Amino acid sequence: MDRADTQHVLAEHLPYPLACRILHFTPNSGVKRHTSPWAELNFAISGIMEIGIRGVTYLSPPQYAIWIPPGVEHCCQNAGEVHYACIDIPASACADLPKEPCTLEISPVMRAILADFERRGVCHPVTPQDRRMAEVVIDQARQARAYASYLPSTADPVLAPVLAALQRRPGDKRGAAHWAATAGITERTLLRHCQQHLGMSFNDWRQRLRVVSALGMLDSGLPVQAVARDLGYSSPSAFIAMFQRLTGESPDSARKRGLPAAP
Known about the structure:
alpha+beta
């Protein structure tokens, strides 16, 4: 699916109590900028999705979803292949959901219900049983842990080129001093820009980037040893320790938890 072919994936229905669309995008494809009268909960089944909202790029690796409230203009673009779910929720059901775009954790319950819908071809829940399950999905979204953005980005002219270079090579082990030099600034200035524009330290952002990258690699079937090596870790145990600290589970557990329930 390329950019010229994506118009038909934009929903034209009124979802009740929700609607589920499973979409697949080839590399370098996307959906043009648009708004919807309902909310969208977008999450990657495989690959990493990129959604542009108000000048900010939100990344959605597996296990995390991007929440877009009703009436918020957005677009999506993907450098790699992405298979993802788009859950449309009517505005009337959004009273207790976030008022601003954000990143939400996806619960195993939510994934299991949506996997069942996808298996049975349920795009619009009709039966009383399916509508009750749809209400559970919305309740799970209300209870989900929210982040302003799991991996924030910025248009800051100092930081943007550095972050782009790191995203191209998440396993690059060169430190903040090197990247400050490439930007023509001091290391202290670079760290200050990170706190100001990203809301976190340079090292914290890099570790989140590695988690995002690792989730995509694990989802594609790469063994833990290969993921650790590609992300610049001297040993699988060092990578596993970092992954557990940031996600609360081991890489193997993340893969096993995600794969059976993936739509």
